[in-house]
Design goal:
Blueprint lengths: L7 E4 L3 E6 L14 H12 L19 E7 L2 H12 L4 E8 L7 E11 L4 E5 L7 E13 L2 E8 L6 H8 L23 E9 L6 E5 L6 H4 L2 H9 L1
Parallel strand pairs: 3-9
Antiparallel strand pairs: 1-2, 2-3, 4-8, 4-9, 5-6, 5-7, 7-8, 9-10
Length: about 230
């Protein structure tokens, strides 16, 4: 992938938001090719003084996940964004296509979360244990067809593999996510989880910013196109 292929969702002199494709990491010191490096090349290509350009990463989404990723274009802005994410001042909405309809059409899931570094997986418990932190999300069913069930997920806390693990724990693994028990085949290095939107207070101007990422243009997601368009209108 080349930086010219980045799908820019929002940009000003302080912020850059792009629609991340599946299969690429956002940030990783062990990888030379990341979404961060592509974003930096993009801003360098437009700047009169490219050697002065900066890209900072205030949040991440998983390699097999698609959707909205926000970057800071200044170190001072990065610091402010990190504080917003830390204090949960942003509204983060995801779409997930799961294999099974949840028991409730709308619910809040609360678990105690711990990252297993050895297995590179999240562990969830119904009660607090050593090394765990509270994980919360809200979901609602949007539509259902033969390919799966479309959920809108509001991520309240931001833990490692949280949405994937919590939905699987509730008996509804995400399509393509064999790491957490998914059995339906999707695409290589891809799961049916999409970071749909971010709503935040602009760290410099103070204005409300709404960033929305179109879902992937493939057969699975387009089978829910009508329902997705209706949620946009609502």
């Amino acid at each position: 992938m080349h930086y010219t292929e980045l799908k820019v969702l929002f940009e000003d002199k302080h912020l850059l938001a792009v629609n991340k494709p599946a299969g690429i990491v956002v940030e990783d010191s062990h990888h030379k090719f990341t979404l961060e490096t592509l974003a930096l090349e993009y801003v360098k290509s437009k700047d009169q003084w490219p050697w002065k350009c900066f890209i900072g990463v205030p949040h991440r989404i998983d390699r097999p996940v698609t959707g909205a990723v926000l970057f800071a274009k200044k170190r001072s802005v990065l610091k402010l964004l990190v504080e917003q994410f830390k204090h949960r001042e942003l509204k983060k909405i995801y779409y997930a296509i799961v294999e099974k309809r949840p028991a409730q059409d709308e619910d809040e899931l609360i678990h105690w979360h711990r990252k297993n570094d050895e297995l590179r997986k999240a562990e969830l418990f119904d009660d607090e244990r050593e090394g765990t932190n509270r994980a919360r999300l809200k979901y609602k069913v949007i539509a259902e067809n033969a390919k799966g069930v479309l959920l809108e997920v509001q991520l309240i806390t931001g833990k490692f593999h949280q949405i994937r693990a919590q939905l699987a724990k509730s008996g509804c693994p995400i399509v393509g996510d064999d790491t957490y028990g998914g059995t339906k085949v999707y695409k290589p290095t891809t799961i049916a989880l999409h970071a749909r939107s971010l709503q935040l207070r602009h760290p410099v101007t103070g204005e409300q910013v709404y960033i929305e990422a179109p879902v992937p243009d493939d057969e699975l997601w387009q089978s829910f196109a009508t329902a997705i368009n209706e949620t946009v209108k609502a």
